[in-house]
Amino acid sequence: MRDLARLASGHRGVLSLAILLTLVASALGMLQPLLVRQAIDSAGHSSLPWHLLTGLVVLFAAQALADAVGLFLLERTGEGVVLGLRRRLIARLLRLRMRVYDEHRIGDLISRVSADTTVLREVTTQASVQLITGALTGIGTVVLMVWLDPFLFLVVISTVAVAAAVVGSLLGRLRAASERAQHSVGAMTADLERALGAIRTVRASRAEEREAQHVGSRARAAYAAGVQAARITSVMSPAVELALRGSLLLVLLIGGTRVARDATSLGELTAFLLYATYLVVPLASVLQGIGSVQRGMGALQRVQEAGALPVEDADGRARPAPAGNGAPVLELRDVRFGYGDRPVLRGVSLTVPPRAHVALVGRSGAGKSTVFSLVERFYEPGSGTILFRGEDIRELGRTDYRSRIALVDQNTPVLHGSLRENLCYTAPHAEEADLERVVRLVNLTELVDRLPSGLDSPVGERGNRLSGGECQRIAIARALLGRPSLLLLDEPTAHLDTVNEAALVRAIDRISEECALLVIAHRISTVCQADRIVVLDAGEVVAEGSHETLLESSSHYRGLVLGELAHNSPDNVEDSPGTGSRPSETGKLPKGNFAWMDLGPPPAQC
Ligand SMILES: Nc1ncnc2c1ncn2[C@@H]1O[C@H](COP(=O)(O)OP(=O)(O)OP(=O)(O)O)[C@@H](O)[C@H]1O
């Protein structure tokens, strides 16, 4: 109840008014049996007591009005509570620490904002008000019943106690079933999100049926838990009804006998009977409320779990990121990091001077993307320091710092919306001229001219109306529009044909005139362009220098160039990467672009 009260804390005023109105309605209802008793008892001695009957009609009308207004206020407050909860959760889910996304399923988090809050809507207002007003009016009715006939009250209360015992014994199971149902709905959403998010793979793998079965099994689990909850509720309700009807029968039997023996008046018995029936409503309210609260507890727990997930620290009084001051744009000093126990970066140091173009190369899994994640402050290093323009990035405001660097991931997504919205995502207020500049820079002019509505054409869900290469270039243009001091570019490996590759090389050349570049390079053409190449292996920098120097000095680099960077088939490369043997020593040369690497000094141009 305390947690529920906290949820509704911003709505206390309206909620109190709603409770007050419901109580007023109940009080007006409680007055009615007293008037009825008086009317019946006085009807025996005189003509029809019209004033009492008029009073009854007024009481009915006033009760209906108070009930209606109270109910509307409750419903509105319920919507308000859910709105506040959803907004808080949404804001939180978008700010969680990166590790949390690694550990949780996105669909399940979505389900907590949608399905769980909807369940809570019922609990927060209706159930809690049902409990409060039910309990208060119940107490009022009980007092009046005891005052009218203590003996008959004892008869009623003992049957009610039986019903309460039945309800009490079932509550734990009801709660467990509702928790299971909510978890299953979460798992179902997560699995559906997985399948729809990879619908092309699902189709190509002919896995529609398997996925339908799998997601369907989650739906069936939710159904089973829901049916279990329904079974429990369906035992609870008749138990309550039986007890209440039984108590009414007993009251009629005992009370009727006493009226026949003149031990009590007909008016007294009628009033008591009316109170007994009136007790049914608040009692049913209380029991229903307890049931709803139990059903809502599963949802509340899931919402609270999501609300307690750790978020990135707020910027607070952190310093703004420094502007150009001659210091290197980026510097990593002996940075160590692991996602779990296994170290992924083992003392990485590297420097990116202003306007420099640094390429990061290494085998798959060497830790290149991890370096980017640390620079973006998605994760914090275990030890070591990352400096931006000479200042420790931990001391800079995250938002401000991130506005100075731009990240283009291999799988940087294009978002649902128009081309313009996508391009302006990093810099929503960019000028039209700037937009045109970056469109030209990344060779997107032809695409914009071809699309029916130009920049305002929709790109489809995750950019599925565009080619992979176009999505990549949109991502680069988007990053550049923010005029970053440093661009982190994970070079696309698969999406570029030779024409686009050449365009990207030219674009990178132009970009490096605007800002510093740290590129995870997979293509020899972009590696050659770099002022400096940092070779990463198993989380360590094993070599550093220009392309020419590294070809001479680093067998690891030569292996990379021949093997992974060239994407040659193993048939073309007998020299396995990292063995140190020169291509010339193998007697067999890689074909195509790399024939020049065979003998003699490296050429001036790649
Ligand atoms: N979120 C994560 N949680 C746990 N381990 C991770 C995570 N991301 C990466 N790893 C592991 O860390 C290591 C380095 O990964 P990273 O993505 O940095 O390599 P990479 O050099 O960029 O590889 P590639 O060129 O294939 O993209 C890998 O062994 C990978 O399995």
Q: In words, what does this structure look like?
A:
The chain is of the alpha/beta class and 606 residues long. It folds into 3 domains: 12-307, ABC transporter type 1, transmembrane domain (ABC transporter transmembrane region fold, Up-down Bundle); 330-545, 3-Layer(aba) Sandwich (Rossmann fold), CATH 3.40.50; 549-606, no CATH class. The protein is 62% helix and 9% strand. The chain is built from 20 helices and 10 strands. It has helices at residues 2-7, 12-43, 50-93, 98-103, 106-148, 150-197, 199-204, 208-260, 266-307, 368-375, 398-404, 419-423, 432-441, 445-450, 468-481, 498-514, 524-529, 547-553, 555-565, 583-586, and strands spanning 330-337, 345-352, 357-362, 383-388, 391-392, 405-408, 486-490, 516-520, 532-537, 540-545. The longest helix has 53 residues, at 208-260. The two termini are 71 Å apart. Mean pLDDT is 81; it is low at 568-606. The structure holds adenosine-5'-triphosphate (ATP). Adenosine-5'-triphosphate is lined by residues 102, 339, 344, 362, 364-370. Residues 17-295 form the ABC transmembrane type-1 domain. It comes from Prauserella shujinwangii.
Task: List the SSEs and their pairings.
Blueprint: H1 2-7, H2 12-43, H3 50-93, H4 98-103, H5 106-148, H6 150-197, H7 199-204, H8 208-260, H9 266-307, E1 330-337, E2 345-352, E3 357-362, H10 368-375, E4 383-388, E5 391-392, H11 398-404, E6 405-408, H12 419-423, H13 432-441, H14 445-450, H15 468-481, E7 486-490, H16 498-514, E8 516-520, H17 524-529, E9 532-537, E10 540-545, H18 547-553, H19 555-565, H20 583-586
Parallel strand pairs: 3-8, 3-9, 6-7, 7-8
Antiparallel strand pairs: 1-2, 1-4, 4-5, 9-10
Helix pairs in contact: 2-3, 2-5, 2-9, 3-5, 5-6, 5-9, 6-8, 6-9, 8-9, 13-15
Bound molecules: adenosine-5'-triphosphate (ATP).
Region (Disordered): 568-606
GO molecular function, one term: ABC-type oligopeptide transporter activity
Transmembrane segments: 53-74, 129-147, 153-172, 272-293
